[in-house]
Amino acid sequence: MGLVINNLSKSYRGPQISQPMDVLYSLDLDIESGTFVSLIGPSGCGKSTICNLIAGIEVPDSGEILLDGKVINGMPGQVSYMPQKDLLLPWRTLLNNVILGCEISGQDKRQAREEAQKWLDQFGLAAFSGYYPHQLSGGMRQRGALLRTILFGRKTLLLDEPFGALDALTRKEMQRWLLKIWNQTHHTVLFITHDIDEAILLSDKVVVLSQRPARILQEFSIPFAHPRDPDLLLSREALALKKQLLQLLLH
Amino acid sequence: MKRNWTKKIPSLLFLFLILGIWQIATTAAQVPLWLFPSPAQIGAAFWETRQLIWMHTLTTLLETSAGFMLAVLLALITAGLMVLSSWFKRLLYPYLIISQTVPLIAIAPLLILWLGYGLLPKILIVVLVCFFPITVSLIEGLELTDTDLLNLLKSMGASRWQIFYIVRWPHALPSLFAGLKIAATYSVMGAVIGEWLGSSSGLGVYLTRSSHSFLTDRVFAVIFTISALSFLYFALITGLAKLAIPWTQIKNQDNG
C-alpha cells in the first residue's frame, strides 16, 4: 500500500536532440502509507519529471505508478501536487485561492469555503483570507499554496521543493510548521528537496538519486521518533547522517 | 480622493493659462472670427447652438455605442476561437493583420456607396476601427504562457474549459481593458469620419457644414464636443475596469 513506482522509464525527444534523452531509466521507489519520504539529488537529475509523472501531467514510456495498488499512469487528480512556485492566482483572494482544487473537482464552493476557513486559522492565515496574494509575504503565500494542496483532499502529497524559493529563516520556520501539520494529518508525502538538513528533519526515509538518468544511489532510514524537535539536527546521529549524505551527493 | 484632486491641479492651471493667452492674443491682434475665434467666442457659439449640437451628438453617440458593442462581441468570438483552437488562429490571424493595413479612408466611401447614407455604414466603420485593438489585446491576454500554472491545474484534473474560465479569462482582463480604452477613443473618430463622407446628421456632418460656411467658432465648438465624447467613453471604460479587475487597483494603491 501507499505509493509504489515500478520500473519507471521516461525519455524525451526534442527537435534539437537527435538521440532520445533518457531522464529516468527503470526507477523503483516505495513509499509506505502515512510516511514522509524525501528525494534528494543533483539538479537536473529528473526530479521534476518524476513529479510530472506521478501528478499525471506526463505519461511514462514504460513502468507503473501504483497508488494503493491501482495503476495511475497518466491520471491527473490522484495526488495533491505542490510546485516550487506558490502559483496563487493574483485575481483571487487567499480564501478563493485555497479552494481552487475543490472548485476544479466540482465540490460545492460554499462548503469548501467553510472548510477552508477552519484550516486558515490553523495555518495562521485567518486574518488574511480576504487579501490578494501580492499583499502577503513569501512565507504566507507558500503556506497558502500548501493549504490549497491539502484542501485538494488527496491522501498523498507530492511536494516539489516547496520551500526552495524562500529565504533561510522563513524556510526554517516553514519546516517546523510543516512538521506540526504533518503530525496531525499523517499524509503520505513525497518531498523533493536540495536541502540535506530539511530532508533529515522532516523525513522517515531519504532517497538519494544519481545524475541523469536518475536511479537510486542509496536509501537512508531516519530513526528519530515523531513529534520531532528541530534541535535534533545537532545530535551526533543526525550529523553522521548528514556527512554520509554529503559524501554521496558530492561524488 | 483628496490627493487625487490635488494631483490634477497643475494640469488644470495649465489649461487656464493656455486659454488666457489664447483669449488675450486673439483679442489684441483682432483676428477675424472666421479665421481663428477666441475661447469666449467659441463658448458663445457652443451655447447658441447647444440644441443643434445635442441632436447631432445623439446620432454620433448611437453609432459609436452600437459599433463599439458589436466590435466587442466580434472580438470575444474571434479571440475565443483563436485561443481555444490553434487551427482557427492559423486561419484567421493573417487576415486580422491585413484588415488593419487597408486604409479606412478608402473603405469608408465604398461602404457609403454600398449601404447608403444611413446609420449602418458608420456603425461598420466604428466596428472596423475598434475590432483590431480589442481582439489583439484579448488574444495576448488569453494566451497564458506560464506552464507551471497550467501544469498545476492539469494535475488537479482541470478540463480545457475550466482552465479557460478559471485562469485564462481573468488573466486576460487587464489586457482586454487596455485594448478597450484604445478602441473607445478611436470609436468616436471612426463615426465622425463616416459622417463626414456622407450623412444627414451627426457631429461629422455638423463639422463639415460649419467649416464650409466659414463658421469657424462652431467648428471649434464641435471639436470640443468630439473630444469630450471620446473622453467620456474613456472614463466609462476606466470605471468599468475598476469594477472588473479590483486586484490591480489594490496593487496600484500599495505602490503609490
Instruction: Give the count of helical stretches of chain B.
Output: 11
- Low-pLDDT runs of 5+ residues of chain A are none
Instruction: Tell me the name of the CATH homologous superfamily of chain B.
Output: MetI-like
The total count of strands of chain B amounts to: 0
Radius of gyration of chain B (CA) equals 23 Å
Number of individual domains of chain B: 1
CATH level 3 topology of chain B: MetI-like fold
Report the top-level CATH class of chain B: Mainly Alpha
Q: What structural category characterises the helix and strand content of chain A?
A: alpha/beta
Largest interface: A-B, 24 and 22 residues
Sum up the structure in keywords:
A: 251 residues, alpha/beta, Rossmann fold, 2 domains, 4-stranded antiparallel sheet, globular, B: 256 residues, MetI-like fold
Walk me through this protein's architecture.
The complex is a heterodimer of chains A (251) and B (256). Chain A folds into 2 domains: 156 residues, P-loop containing nucleotide triphosphate hydrolases (Rossmann fold), CATH 3.40.50.300; 69 residues, no CATH class. In chain A, the strands form 2 sheets. Chain A has a 6-stranded mixed sheet with strand order 6-7-8-3-9-10, with helices on both faces. Chain A has a 4-stranded antiparallel sheet with strand order 2-1-4-5, covered by helices on one side. Chain A is 34% helix and 24% strand. The longest helix of chain A is centred in the last third of the chain and has 18 residues. Chain A is built from 8 helices and 10 strands. Chain A is globular. By secondary structure, chain A is α/β, with parallel strands linked by helices. In chain B, 86% of the residues lie in helices and 0% in strands. The radius of gyration of chain B is 23 Å and the shape is globular. Chains A and B meet through helix 3 of A and helix 7, helix 8 and helix 11 of B.
